[in-house]
Amino acid sequence: MMQQHTTSLDIETPGSGLHEVTARIRDWTAKAGVQTGLLTIFCQHTSCSLLIQENAAPAARRDLETYFARIAPEDATRYEHDDEGPDDMPAHLRAALTQVQLSIPVMEGSLALGRWQGIYLFEHRRRPQARTLALHLLGK
Amino acid sequence: MMQQHTTSLDIETPGSGLHEVTARIRDWTAKAGVQTGLLTIFCQHTSCSLLIQENAAPAARRDLETYFARIAPEDATRYEHDDEGPDDMPAHLRAALTQVQLSIPVMEGSLALGRWQGIYLFEHRRRPQARTLALHLLGK
Amino acid sequence: MMQQHTTSLDIETPGSGLHEVTARIRDWTAKAGVQTGLLTIFCQHTSCSLLIQENAAPAARRDLETYFARIAPEDATRYEHDDEGPDDMPAHLRAALTQVQLSIPVMEGSLALGRWQGIYLFEHRRRPQARTLALHLLGK
Fold first, then answer.
1. Residues B3-139, CATH architecture
2. Predicted ipTM?
3. A57 and C132: CB-CB below 8 Å?
4. How confident is the model at residue C1 (pLDDT cuts 50, 70, 90)?
5. Deepest in the core among A11, A41, A77, C42, taking most CB within 10 A?
6. What is the DSSP letter of A99?
7. Closest residue, chain C, to B93 (C-alpha)
């Protein structure tokens, strides 16, 4: 019989950059004991986001961070909105360019991630933040 | 017992920009009476898109609109495709950079949106358009 | 009664660019015989991605390819990561800017795609690649 599981995953980010959350999400999914299903990860914030990317080469992650800092730079002269500081508006832009939500099939009891795929919380604010991901798993 | 609900949401956009649809989507979801589930919003167009963003500061929305107009500008010299006018190809590009689909968990009878998150239809064409979002809700 | 269907779709890409997969995905979905449901497409790679875009004008697809080549260009001086060649890091960036996953409602036995929407595998590597999409369909 089809079942649903939900939880909130609290994540303390140490500052801007890609923070891997694959293991925590895989562990929670495994515990639910679902063989076939669909896992949805939903980021409840507008200044951090989700990204599935290369999990092997740290240089690839650094290039990703540098790239998003370049296409949506901190620059006080560009933005009207700066209530929370100069890193706030670029954070919203970098979040808009990436993902607020990811759904990953569960097959044979495991997330159907490719061999080189890791799940990352992409923190776009400079300072440490307390973040929450809502998880929803459906299956049997 | 798990149930499915579907509808088509018609939206008249007054021109380019971020148009909030949170209340309409929340109301439809609430009426379905689902306690735990997954709501999927699917945009049936290629020149407008979906975005979850900051719902408090109008300046943040203006900066988002300005940003996407800058990274995917109207510029006849850049694009081969202009069958529907100079705002058509940039519209496809801005749609490609944002979302055609969003899935949001339903927990305790409500969409699991963060406090500052609003759901927006991002119209990329200049003139008013008739748009349709397909909604699918699964849960119980 | 709610059912789940899963498969892996193997796709040989001939090189970089947008490769339409709508017919293959529509055919598999139709065979499952689901009237109402949710189809999820998950790309198991980090150097190609998914995009729903205009299916009528080839010029629009060429402009999309040109655009992503321009905003995330090949340029050895920009990137630290080049283990797999100069087209590798731009491929990760173009994948990060588009989609790793798409969920599409099924209504009245068909994918709820808009009239002008096609589903594309966006290959970002230059050489032919063997790619896999994980498909998950839920419904009845």
1. Sandwich (2.60)
2. 0.97
3. no
4. confident
5. C42
6. B
7. C64
